[in-house]
Amino acid sequence: MFIDRIIVVCTVVLALLYFYGASLIPSLQIGDPLGPKAFPYLIGIGLLISAAWLLLETLQAGKADAADPQELADHADMGPEDNRHLLVIAGVVAWIAFYFALFEPVGFLLATPVSLLGLMVYFNRNKWVANVLTSVLFPVGIYFLFSKVLGVNLAKGLLPF
Amino acid sequence: MDSFIHIMNGFSVSLTPINLWYTFLGVFMGTVIGVLPGIGPAAGIALLIPVSYGLNPTSALIMMAGVYYGAQYGGSVTSILINTPGESSSVMTAIDGHQMARKGRAGAALAISAWGSFIGGTIGVIALTLLAVPLTKIALGFGPPEYFMLMLVALTAVSALTGKSPAKGMLAMMLGLAIATIGTDLQSGQTRFAMGVTELQDGVGFVIVVVGLFALGEVFSAMEEHFHKRSEILRLKGKLSLTKEEWRRSIKPIARGGTIGFLIGLLPGAGATIATIMSYSVEKNMSKHPQEFGKGAIEGVAGPETANNSATAGAMVPLLTLGVPGSGSTAVLLGAFVMYGIQPGPLLFQSRPDLVWGLVNSMYVGNVMLLLLNLPLIGLFVRLLYIPTGILLPLVIVLSTVGIFSVNGNTLELYLCLMFGVLGYVFRKIDIPLAPLVLALVLGGMMEQSFRQAMTLSGGNPKIFVGSVLTISLAALSVFIIGHTVYKALSRKSRLRSSAQTSPT
Prior knowledge:
The complex is a heterodimer of chains A (161) and B (505). By secondary structure, chain A is mostly helical. Chain A is 78% helix and 0% strand. Chain A is built from six helices and no strands. The longest helix of chain A is centred in the N-terminal third of the chain and has 28 residues, at 38-65. By secondary structure, chain B is mainly α. Chain B has one domain (2-231, 241-490). A two-stranded antiparallel ribbon of chain B has the order 1-2. Classes of the chains: A mainly alpha (161), B mainly alpha (505). Chains A and B meet through α1, α2, α4, α5 and α6 of A and α8, β2, α9, α17 and α18 of B.
């Protein structure tokens, strides 16, 4: 499968970066015959072995590919619809990152309802009453539970309480 | 005799009002987590770790264990009523359970899974109690090389047995080990792979990884599925009771499922899911009317539902007695122990018998509570299914955010968690299993320590890892697991190819 080959390439790149990172660790071998580098080197080798193994698997699968109905079905899954889903997920991730950016400067009690409502408007369409109520009441409940009962400080931000 | 006194003392710990309350809280949340899609026991326990920081360790661990085994009860509800299993260990329940519900026997299916779960869970705890003491006696003789090999076997088994491709399992395990090396090396004090980021000097927080992979990643996957049409929820009709005939048919599957589940649960890598598959196929093979399976045979619900609960108790055995978990969820539990500065294993049975036996005995109480929650009160939990996913999933995101932020109050860790969420989503898409990664992440530090201690003992000679009967047999075991996996993969491939030649498609 095509995706598996990409995984192989990514793993090899990652393993090389990891080796490079391991070589940067200063080692002072006192009383420890191995030092802090040896175990990471072993893991790097392990990463390369798993990449090689995966490559073997894809080569083998490639031979059986043509006649494997499951494999064909897998390919059929990756249509334009799937791409649209990826876009939506990317949008959600960006929206959450935006929420995290607001979290400390604006505060939990203001940032959370905004981001919750944004997600619900998209994923739970046309249910305005339920959406607005949950996106306000849930954060207020959580805030009260954490700051008053559990004594955990959630970001206050702009609000005085 | 000593251990008998310890076990009895354990009851006095687990029956204190405060611990009864936390047992209840744990099993209640476990049932909710089991019923709800989008959040599983691993993420649930991980989110509780920061919240329960101020509790005394015994109560906190009792609660988190409650979430772990309680989730197995709730998992069957979605399997039966909407044919979408909440957890992978409830997949087998869906086959016959949903058919029973379509025939109007949803009440009976739910009742037998509650009873099966209760009996399985209780059998499991009894076996755990009996097995723990002799096992810790053996484990006391373990040195660093034995521990290293033991962890290697656990990791190999989990990597080989979860997921479709063993190569991807190994890749996940190596990634977990690599993440575990980030941060300050305990032996030399050197900082490794921190890339100049201060937050990474203490390592990547285990809660961040687990919440990212299992909560956020799961939310993203569920949001994607949101676009596909939602299956209807069957109404819960009839009383939650069984006819005499149904009881008669279920007794033997329950007894067999309980035994199979516990034995499979003991083994690393296998776990609850494989136990349910084994139990289902055993019941189908032994049945006098196998044609009924898949069409609503009660044996197909009773066996697997018993097996997955006794498997969760079985999986507690290696965690508690050896300190080496054999699955993703027990790895998260180990992470919770470690957060409290407690290392499970044979020594803990000597130093903190009150904690160990208080925890084990709370599982008896917890199973009774779960039976009560899941029989008379199951209707309340079924209502949770009517919460639209469009509301539920955003709420899980907020809970994850709050959980991560309350660890250190650091926004950078939120972004790190989001990154792991994306990673979890992508890994699910490309079939890289997450359990080996989490297990390796939790075991990585301990593995490196025991590896280096063993090498120090032997003066740098790696032969120490095959220096005793025990290490040799453990090494042979992991070689066997790898060999068996490769063999199985090869034979499947050649079968595919020969079928390709015979049937032109």
